[in-house]
């Protein structure tokens, strides 16, 4: 193999089916690729047939393959594979994604023509493989633009203005080795890496994509997607990454400028929280946690971005809490609902309640119940109820709707 200009670095673990799809795609997309290249794969001790998949492509693709003796973690595996690259330019590629050959070649050509630029970032295509449909770009900006070395203020302005996510890029190997990028815990790595690269070189943002994020590989594809999982819970790391970029020029800011940037960052984070609520609803995540996240998004001014009104999220959270809270439901065999309930609420209570679920229009004689959770819609129904010792003896707990909804105020 001649010395490569481009290194395509793929960390992988236990996804041989997706890796095989990726390598097939690379074989097709890079046919006639005008630049010399290598594919560097680090297998993080996969227990499946990943080594066999790689071996099948060894004669048709310029692959260098490493296999870890044990699983060293996703971040460490990425650190490992990019430091094994030999090309002048490094592209990190997810084992379940793809590249566009012609567009990748053009991006490399742009970098070759701009020796002061150490890293180039670009949006990526969202693609559904079974339907062969492009689903748009993850973000867009109207033109290519260059950020001069050290101008972290311009970098943060560009990120906030265009909602840029510098996750997909091409980095010069020498720059990567000097910067030694790692994945920090409290600041989103992509913002941090872009800031670190900018400290030592110019950085360019390309408007045209060269990378493909495969949303779905086949019908029924239920793989855990790192980006999706992160979007559901990483808002504080996102804030940390943006605040890191701001820290690089914060000493030059007047108080009103500082507040203006913090407001813009909060707006950005509020939008991401609203998106996280949407993803959480889609994945049927815990409604209580989803409610509190939506409340935070609302506080940051992102209520319009929520997929449902807060009242709906509030009601769903309250119902889930009533039927799933460990202490309320401890040793309970039945749920007793008292009052008039809409059909949808009745169905929800009937489906989610543990054990037997029964409904009464008015207060029954609670002395006949034991090991029961009693949910009362009309507080007047239990006014003057002085049976706490007896109810406790019989493991009966009464929850008033007003108290429950007050817990989830919005």
Automatic annotation (TrEMBL):
<feature type="domain" description="Glycosyltransferase 2-like">
    <location>
        <begin position="7"/>
        <end position="101"/>
    </location>
</feature>
<dbReference type="InterPro" id="IPR001173">
    <property type="entry name" value="Glyco_trans_2-like"/>
</dbReference>
<dbReference type="InterPro" id="IPR029044">
    <property type="entry name" value="Nucleotide-diphossugar_trans"/>
</dbReference>
<dbReference type="Pfam" id="PF00535">
    <property type="entry name" value="Glycos_transf_2"/>
</dbReference>
<protein>
    <submittedName>
        <fullName>Glycosyltransferase family 2 protein</fullName>
    </submittedName>
</protein>
């Amino acid at each position: 193999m001649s010395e490569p200009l481009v290194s395509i670095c793929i960390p992988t673990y236990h996804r041989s089916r997706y890796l095989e799809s990726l390598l097939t795609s690379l074989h097709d997309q890079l046919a006639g690729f005008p630049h010399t290249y290598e594919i560097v794969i680090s297998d993080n001790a996969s227990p499946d047939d990943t080594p066999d998949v790689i071996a099948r492509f060894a004669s048709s693709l310029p692959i260098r393959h490493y296999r870890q003796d044990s699983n060293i973690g996703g971040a460490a595996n990425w650190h490992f594979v990019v430091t094994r690259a030999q090309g002048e330019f490094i592209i990190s590629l997810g084992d379940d994604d793809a590249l566009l050959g012609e567009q990748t070649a053009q991006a490399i050509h742009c970098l070759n023509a701009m020796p002061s630029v150490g890293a180039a970032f670009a949006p990526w295509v969202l693609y559904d493989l079974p339907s062969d449909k492009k689903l748009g770009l993850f973000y867009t900006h109207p033109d290519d633009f260059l950020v001069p070395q050290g101008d972290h203020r311009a970098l943060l302005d560009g990120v906030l203005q265009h909602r840029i996510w510098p996750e997909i890029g091409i980095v010069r190997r020498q720059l990567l080795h000097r910067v030694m990028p790692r994945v920090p815990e409290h600041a989103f790595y992509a913002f941090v890496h872009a800031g670190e690269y900018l400290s030592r070189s110019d950085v360019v943002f390309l408007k045209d994509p060269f990378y493909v994020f495969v949303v779905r590989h086949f019908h029924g594809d239920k793989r855990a997607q790192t980006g999706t999982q992160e979007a559901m819970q990483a808002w504080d790391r996102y804030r940390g990454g943006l605040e890191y970029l701001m820290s690089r020029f914060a000493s030059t800011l007047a108080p009103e400028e500082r507040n203006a940037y913090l407001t813009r960052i909060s707006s950005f984070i509020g939008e991401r929280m609203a998106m996280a609520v949407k993803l959480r609803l889609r994945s049927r995540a815990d409604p209580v946690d989803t409610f509190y996240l939506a409340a935070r998004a609302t506080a940051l001014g992102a209520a319009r971005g929520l997929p449902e009104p807060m009242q709906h999220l509030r009601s769903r959270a309250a119902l889930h809490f009533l039927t799933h809270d460990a202490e309320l439901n401890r040793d309970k065999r039945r749920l007793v609902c008292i009052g008039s309930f809409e059909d949808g609420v009745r169905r929800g209570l009937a489906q989610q309640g543990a054990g037997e679920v029964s409904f009464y229009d008015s207060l029954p004689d609670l002395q006949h119940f034991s090991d029961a959770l009693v949910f009362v819609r009309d507080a007047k129904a239990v006014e003057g109820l002085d049976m706490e010792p007896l109810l406790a003896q019989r493991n009966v707990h009464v929850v008033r709707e007003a108290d429950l909804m007050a817990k989830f105020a919005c």
